[in-house]
């Protein structure tokens, strides 16, 4: 027990509490599935979280110290959000059979395209990086960025930066009806954004993009959280 408490990923470190906070995403998906109807599901946000958590599963395996708690929570979140997308799809087919196929096709194309594009780039990164390193026409800053361990050819870049998609979703939903805002999901997103702002400075390599993306996430999710709390607990 003492060795666990003082370990590099033990409860005395942000390496422990950051991933623990991320369990809130998976638990919010499970809670909403159990307590809320499919009509309130934000299908775009749930689908985005599937891709986001898939990327972070790889990130958790690559980052040092390797973080199995982070891997576990994102694996659970992929399953929870896929279930939410499934529930939304069934609901749309029942309630809006004319438009449901087009909606599901568009959602699948967006998420599948993003996953395939990033996966293909990472798979071909060695050949691309080698070509860029040997090129005499590219500026030194460009080749240095390409070779950086948190650069665009590594999961350390794509996992945190894909988190911008979560904030973009929040901005697109700026006027979403409050009755369709998930209190649990936005609480989890706000909390994980706040904690990961700190976590970005204690991992190797230090990841500034992770800090800024979580700053945006905590702010945009906190906005929706404040709207929901105001409508449900203050204005009533």
Automatic annotation (TrEMBL):
Similarity annotation: Belongs to the mitochondrial pyruvate carrier (MPC) (TC 2.A.105) family.
Protein name per its UniProtKB record: Mitochondrial pyruvate carrier
Chief localization: mitochondrion
Cell compartments where the protein resides: Mitochondrion inner membrane
Recorded topology in the membrane: Multi-pass membrane protein
Pfam family, one: MPC
One BP term from GO: pyruvate import into mitochondria
InterPro entries (UniProt xref): MPC
Keyword Translocase: no
This protein's UniProt keywords: Membrane, Mitochondrion, Mitochondrion inner membrane, Transmembrane, Transmembrane helix, Transport
Record field: transmembrane: 106-124
The protein's role, per its UniProt record: Mediates the uptake of pyruvate into mitochondria.
GO CC terms, sorted: mitochondrial inner membrane
UniProt source species: Noctiluca scintillans (Sea sparkle)
PANTHER family the record matches: UPF0041 BRAIN PROTEIN 44-RELATED (PTHR14154)
């Amino acid at each position: 027990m003492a060795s666990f408490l003082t370990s590099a990923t033990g409860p005395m470190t942000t390496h422990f509490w950051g991933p623990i906070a991320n369990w809130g995403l998976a638990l919010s998906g499970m809670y909403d599935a159990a307590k809320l109807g499919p009509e309130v599901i934000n299908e775009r946000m749930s689908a985005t979280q599937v891709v986001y958590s898939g990327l972070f599963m790889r990130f958790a395996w690559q980052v040092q110290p390797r973080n199995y708690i982070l891997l576990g929570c994102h694996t659970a979140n992929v399953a929870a959000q896929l279930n939410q997308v499934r529930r939304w799809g069934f609901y749309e087919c029942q309630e809006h059979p004319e438009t449901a196929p087009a909606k599901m096709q568009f959602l699948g194309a967006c998420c599948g395209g993003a996953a395939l594009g990033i996966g293909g780039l990472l798979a071909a990164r060695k050949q691309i990086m080698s070509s860029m390193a040997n090129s005499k026409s590219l500026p030194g800053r460009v080749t240095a960025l390409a070779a950086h361990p948190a650069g665009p050819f590594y999961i350390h870049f794509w996992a945190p930066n894909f988190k911008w998609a979560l904030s973009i979703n929040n901005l697109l939903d700026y006027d979403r009806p409050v009755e369709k805002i998930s209190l649990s999901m936005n609480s989890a997103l706000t909390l994980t954004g706040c904690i990961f702002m700190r976590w970005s400075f204690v991992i190797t390599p230090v990841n500034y993009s992770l800090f800024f993306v979580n700053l945006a996430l905590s702010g945009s999710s906190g906005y929706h959280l404040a709207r929901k709390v105001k409508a449900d607990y203050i204005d009533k």
